[in-house]
Write a structure and sequence with these properties.
The chain has 388 residues and is mainly alpha-helical. The chain folds into 2 domains: 49-213, no CATH class; 241-279 and 312-385, no CATH class. The protein is 47% helix and 8% strand. It has helices spanning 7-14, 17-41, 49-62, 77-85, 87-90, 106-109, 130-135, 138-141, 152-166, 179-185, 234-238, 256-260, 267-270, 282-285, 291-295, 302-310, 313-317, 321-328, 339-353, 359-368, 371-385; strands at 67-72, 115-122, 190-191, 197-198, 206-213, 244-246, 249-250. The strands form 3 sheets. The chain has a 3-stranded antiparallel sheet with strand order 1-2-5, with helices on both faces. Strands 3-4 form a two-stranded antiparallel sheet. Strand 6 (244-246) and strand 7 form a beta hairpin. It is elongated. The N and C termini lie far apart (117 Å). The structure holds iron/sulfur cluster (2 copies). Residues 192-194, 228-229, 232-235, 286-289 line the site of one iron/sulfur cluster (SF4).
Length: 388
Amino acid sequence: MKKKYSLNGYFFFLLTKSQKSILLFIVVYTTVRLTGQQNKNRGGYSMDKHELSQKIKYKAYELGFAKVGFAPAEDFTEYIQEFESRIEDYKFLIGGKNDTLKGSALKEAMPEGKSIIGLVVDHSKTCYPEKLSKSFGRAYLSQSYMPKDDMIHGARIKLFVDYLESLGINVAKNIQMPDRYACAKAGIVTYGKNNFAYAEDCGSFIVLKSFLIDQELEYDESSVRCDCPPNCRACIDSCPTGALYAAGKINPRKCFMFGMMRSEYDSDVREKAENRIHGCDDCQLACPRNKSVLQKATQTNPFLELLEKEFDLEKVLLMDDEYYKRVIYPIGYNYITKKEIFQRNAAIALGNSKDEKYIPSLLKAYEEGNAIVREGAAWALENIRKEK
Ligand code: SF4
Ligand code: SF4
C-alpha cells in the first residue's frame, strides 16, 4: 500500500540532516517557551506541588516566621456556623474591614482559590518592660499585630507576598480570613479556652497571618481543636470584667479593647482597667500552657526599653502630637487611630489609681482637651474624689 505523507511531513522529508536539526531545535524551543508563557499566564509555573510547598516553607522560615502550614481552600463552614450562632455579639464586625464572616466565604473571595497559607510570628521570647506591659497588650508591644507596610513586620509580610507572586502565584487581596481558624486548618496552632491560638514552643504569644492563593500545595494535618486540660478554667477566672464567661465564649463588649478603641467606653469595664490603655493579657498570663514559655521570655528589646523610659500615663494624658508620634504610635498604631482616645484612656487609668496627685493634670486635661478627653478626665476626677 502506498504510504501517504502530509504536506508538512513531505517538506520535512526533503530537508538535509542539518536543516532538520535546526528545525527540530526551533520547534522544541518554541514549544517550551509557549508552555512556560501559558503556565505563567494561568498564574503558575510548571512546578509540582511538593516542590512549590517546599519553596514556600523555606522562604517563610528564611523571613523569620516561626511556623508555616498549608490547608485546602474550602469554605470555613464550621466557623461560619459558630459565628452565626453568636451573631448578636459579633455583628459589629459585619461590613467592616475585619469582617471575618465575609472572609470565611473563600470561594466568593477567590473562585479559583486552591490553598490557604498560615503563618505564625513568635513574640513569646521577648521580655517585655514591666511599665509598658501594664498598659499595653504584648501583641501590640511586639509591633507585629496588623503592622503597617513601613514597619519591619509589615515589610516581612510584603516580602513574602512578593515572593509568592514571583512564583506566578495569585494571592487574594481584600479578604480578611479569620486567621486563628485558618492557621488551625493549616495545622500550626490549636485553640485555648480563652479563644487565643497556641503554637508549640510559643504559647499564645504569637501573631497570625493567613493567605488565600490559587495554587495547590501539599497540605498539613488540620489542628482545629482545643488542647487545654479538661478541668482548667484559670483564664476564665482571671478575666477582670467577666468578658470570658465560658470555655471558648467571650462577650467582646466586655473585653477591654472594645471600649478602649471607641469613644464609648463602658463604665463597668473602665473601672477594672487599672493601668491599661491598649489591651489586656490577663487570660494569657494566667494560663498554664504559657507557663514555661513565659519563663523563657528573656530577650530584651532595646527599642521598647527606650520607649519605657519616656512612657508615663500623665504624659500621655497631656501629650502633644510629637510625643504621640514618637512614643505611642509605634506601639499603638493599629486599633486606636486618634490621639485623644489614648488621652482619654490615660485619664481613666489615672482615675483608677485613686491617687490625688493626678488631680492637677486631670484638671488641665479637662480644661484643654476635646469632648472625649474631658469626659475621661471628669470620670477620673470623680473616681478619685469619691475615694476621699
Ligand atoms: S483580654 Fe482581658 S478582658 Fe479580654 S477576655 Fe482576656 S482577660 Fe478578659
Ligand atoms: S488557662 Fe487553662 S483553660 Fe484557659 S486557655 Fe489556658 S489551659 Fe486552657
